[in-house]
Amino acid sequence: MKASRQPRRYVAFLLAVMLATALIAAALNTWVDPLRVTGAPWASREIDPYRDISANTRSGKAGLVLARKDWQAAIFGSSRVISSLDPQAAGWGDKRVVNLGMPGALLYENVAMAEYFLSRQPAELLVFGIDPGDLTNTLDTRPFMDFLTSPLSPEGKADRQLRFIFGISTMETSIETLSNRGKRPGEYNDHGFRNRPAHGGGGGAAAPGKKQIEFIKNRFIDEATLPPKPDAGTVINRDKAAKLEALIRHCRSKGVRLVMFMHPNHVLLQAKAADIGKATVPFETERRALVAMVERLNGEGPGPAAELWDFYSYHPYNRERVRPVEGEPPTLVHWRDLEHFTQDVGEGMLSLMMGWPVKNPDLTAYGEKISSGNVEGRVNKLQADYQRYLMVDGADDVRWKEGLGKGK
């Protein structure tokens, strides 16, 4: 009899330990709530500045949506927006704005986040960034980050909520959050913005130097080994376009203003000497397709008109010298790399789109609102500007870039 009771006691002990562990995890995870996703009324407010969502940005940004019920506006996009478009810029006044940009996020993820926001907030405005080339690309970033384990995913809702409350991985994050308390604030603030004070210039300016140039050089060397894709940039991805169309319709039906914009790149990123003499410009297919989409959907019925802005141009900031020149200071000061513009540029972009005064006179004509009435004129101007860049303004940079791919 005693021998038969022994396994039962052992099992009962294990169950008691497991139950105690689960209860401790639940208490800790809902009190610390490191990703702001449990919604427990006893979650600590004092810990909020130390919640670090950088390792789980999809869940963490969804948590920002869940944490409040009064967001009026939101900013969406890839890593280009998370350190450059400030949701607490002076121009917003007392409007409650959150930055929901996510590193590496393209259209599928950004549309999902926008829909998540629209369904849970008294939204008035969406500012929606589109990466150049995304609409003609089949790349789906959802499997590569934490999208599938975040509240944005329609799959596994029950399992996910249990993990947020009872999960050991969540408990580890809770403990890390507590260890940061009073020492190091989270990388993102409670409006979803990731400040970059180490870059100087109020968190906006780049830090030109060897590391920045080495990063850029290595990218060009890597890209030179890849064969060009046939028809790259000339065919619209219909599935992505359909998702974006559904978002535009949803915003208009809810009376929400939608301001979409094509991000700038430093133009050296796409420039190639083989384009000299050609009547072409990067991303012209996307511009025309987006203009046609917006025009068609704005004509479908009542609702605020969706807007489309274009910041990809040959503006002096977008063609700053990249190649290092001995004895001369670097001029690449408005870019962290060739895709991530600085906060002062982001401030100018927001000012143009929102109709605020543009503080920096260099940025008063940085971008343009495009429609069927001016898109062809803009494309024609960009074509001429591109040829001038290839043959004059950026000729030395293009030679330097293409020489890197040949081992020079």
Overview of the molecule:
The structure is a single chain. This protein is of the alpha/beta class. It has a single domain (60-154, 190-404), classed as SGNH hydrolase (Rossmann fold, 3-Layer(aba) Sandwich). It is built from 12 helices and 6 strands. The protein has helices spanning 2-32, 57-67, 79-82, 107-118, 157-166, 168-180, 210-224, 238-254, 284-298, 343-354, 375-393, 395-404; strands at residues 73-76, 97-99, 125-130, 257-262, 307-310, 368-369. The protein has a 6-stranded mixed sheet, with helices on one face. Strand 4, helix 9 and strand 5 form a beta-alpha-beta unit. Helix 8 runs parallel beside helix 9 (284-298). The longest helix has 31 residues, at 2-32. The protein starts with a helix and ends with a helix.
